[in-house]
Amino acid sequence: MAKRDLEEELKKERRLIGSLLYEIDYWKQQLSVMEHEHNETTSALRGKIDSLMAEMNYKDCVLPDWELRYNGTMRQLMSENVVLREEIRKGNEEIIKLKYELSLQTKELEECKSKNDNDPDRGTLLNETEVLKENVPCQNLVETLSSQVAALKKELQETSEALEDITSEYSGLTVKHLLANQELQDARKESIKGLNDILNSKTTLGIKRMGDINHKAFEVACLQKFPNEDWRETCAKLCSLWQQNVQDPKWHPFKIIDIEGKLQRVIDEDDAKLKELRNEYGNTAYEAVGTALMEMNEYNASGTYPVPEVWNRKEERKATVKEIVEYIIKQLKIHKGKGKRKRNTM
Hints:
Residues 208-338 form the Factor of DNA methylation 1-5/IDN2 domain. This is Factor of DNA methylation 1-5/IDN2 domain-containing protein. By secondary structure, this protein is mainly alpha-helical. The protein has helices spanning 2-113, 122-135, 137-195, 215-225, 231-246, 272-299, 321-345, and strands spanning 205-210, 254-259, 262-267, 307-312, 317-318. Helix 4 runs antiparallel to helix 6. The longest helix is centred in the N-terminal third of the chain and has 112 residues, at 2-113. Mean pLDDT is 76; it is low at 128-136.
């Protein structure tokens, strides 16, 4: 009996082992399929990112050259247009002057013809008239100037057409650059959505809400102003109040100034609210609000809500697309390595 029980138990164990082996094989196949799909997705993503980056780099390199050529050609054509228009103006004035002189001489001759036939001077005037009819230097000069003006007008037309072609080509390039930039911005927004649950306080990259006030700045200010009181509640209320101010589209504490020949928007230090904040809580809180205002103005001019952005914490700046792509690829490699170790363990 004991032997039969043992054999039965062994059969059960063998069946269990067979079932486990089957299940292990099944999961190995599933993992292999998942790895294949993962590799295809990674490859497609890498290819698309590389293509997008290459296109953006190429357009970033080409666009400045096109801008220089466009600006140079524009200046040259505009200068030529000014010269041609001035020459045409002078030619038209000369033609008008000559036509006027010719009309005066013609009128004078007509008056002479209408005089009495016995006028002793008649013969002389008629002879002069015939000479004028034969030579007519004024008429020849008018015709010559008219030809020159026509040639100048034709040259001006050709220059204007060339200018229109260059302007059209530049406009097309600008549109392509804007479309590529929009595609890049869309990819950046999608990366923010995907990285939002991955990035944390320990990673170099993080998600920063542009337009949010730095609470630590107000904590420092409140701790200095209320060292012996419960400053935390006051700090929370102040942060909430000033966040509402920053997001208020009716409040616009900015001014435009000229910096090295360029007009730039900066914080208006004479704004009543900001002056009161600086006087009561110091530069730390003032600068925190100023930073949030500038971020809000850049990312969401309507000022109704902060906008998330991938941020390089180490260097305190917006992360580049290259940094985002490198981080994503690094995470994919780590995930792939974990999958291999899991299969080896099984």
